[in-house]
Amino acid sequence: MTNYQLTYKRFSEASILVQWPQKIAPEILADMLAFKNNLLNSEHSSILQITNAYSSILITYRDYISNFESEITFLKTKYASRQNLEKQDSKLWKIPACYDCHFALDLEEISNEKQLSPSEIIKLHVDAVYNVYFIGFLPGFLYLGGLNERLFMPRIKSPRQHVEKGAVAIGGEQTGVYPNASPGGWNIIGNSPLNFFNSDLETPCFANAGDRIQFMAVDFKTHQEILVEVQNGTYNIESEVNDG
Amino acid sequence: MVEVLKSGLFDSIQDLGRVGVQQFGVPMSGAMDQYSAKLANAILGNEQEAAVLEFTLLGPTLKFCIETAICLTGMECQAKINKEPIENNRYVLIKKDDVLSFGKRELGFRGYLAVLGGFQSEKVMESRSFYRMITTQERLKTGDVLKIRTVPVPAKVANAIVKTPKAHSETLILEVFKGVEFALLSADQKQQLLSTTFTITKDSNRMAYQLQEGLPNDLHPILTSAVLPGTIQLTPSGQLMVLMRDCQTTGGYPRILQLSEMSINRLSQKTPGDKFRFNILNY
User: Fold this and answer.
1) How far is CA B9 from CA B17, B57, B59, B209, in A?
2) Contacts of residue A143 in chain B, CB cutoff 8 Å?
3) Fewest CB atoms within 10 Å of the CB: A39, A205, B105, B277?
């Protein structure tokens, strides 16, 4: 287990930011989650919540942090005593996505830009297994790492006022799915019929930081059928536990 | 029940927001000026988390269908029950069919109406705060009917006269702490940040306040990381964006300053065109 040089900074009156080296890397994700888990298990009563992003963790306290230095000492102890998480805790989710031209508004543009045929682009997109780093931007928006670098594509020049719910898109070095209709500047290559956020559920998002996802290409007819099943609550998302 | 006879410019139900669900990308939300929201509840003897009605610049016209008590805080805007003026920060008895209306704004920008027992609108993820994509409604509209609790109404409560300091809406100084990327700024940028009088633009809402005066910026965007209400981001074009209660949970711009909790409340009472300066505090 690598011990990273972490920096601890006061973020606000009641929160502390812990930073790892500023890059997107699966080993940093695993290290952050191990630290976060150790902190959660410590049942520190004044910690309200812990959220992670690509290479940082925000620890929010119930009240003003009156003794910052002793809190940092506590956090450092908890970093030193962290344990690697069991692999079985992470799941691989199979996400149906339709790359039909009906949805893939920017597929042709990427094809021209990258000198790849649409089917090559789709193959590169579904072959990769993506790590879920965190959820942000919109409720249920998964930040994924692991996009094939041949698909890196700058955001579109004029963001769209309306991106459809379920849009599968590429923005820079990232790919993701819009969980709800929203304005957006990523290149749209397909659509997933799944619900990525449901506030009625105790766990509103099926995927967690540390899980992995893989897209599976479905045709338009299958997409529409799954959409109906999702609306009726009868669709089961395929998942498997990490086999290492 | 309370009937919205005429909605105001932007009315919503707010409590202290959704805390603990930011890991799902859910914004905190909650009353913009939490000092005023808590004060209104305290004067009525409600719990501080009770849901209040937040209104902006132009208040709504409301009809009460039951007997209750209310308290107004925040913006001062010639509130009347039927034709009788009422004051802010007071326990006010309401009879069935009373109509509450508001006039011209005199002070502040956001008003709060608390009712005895709190508004009973839908609760999503432990909060009644309106937010698009989370609650069915984003704002109140004319004709809406709001549920309130039927509770015995004390004829009056023994409360001292509570005054909100004028500075709450009139301060020219907002207190901030150094943001986590503050150290990346040059000496010139830091100097400018402290000496500039900033103006609030019209592009200011519950998500963020945009400031008119910018700062020359050569900082690179950061790897997406956490942001909070009160985080001040410096955009690539050099604009300062002050995140407010409905902000996203993560962002990619350098976080150069962080407003104190009280300064978030105070900024919420400022209107587009108002000016202020920053004063950096140490924790």
Assistant:
1) 21, 7, 7, 17
2) 224, 250
3) B277
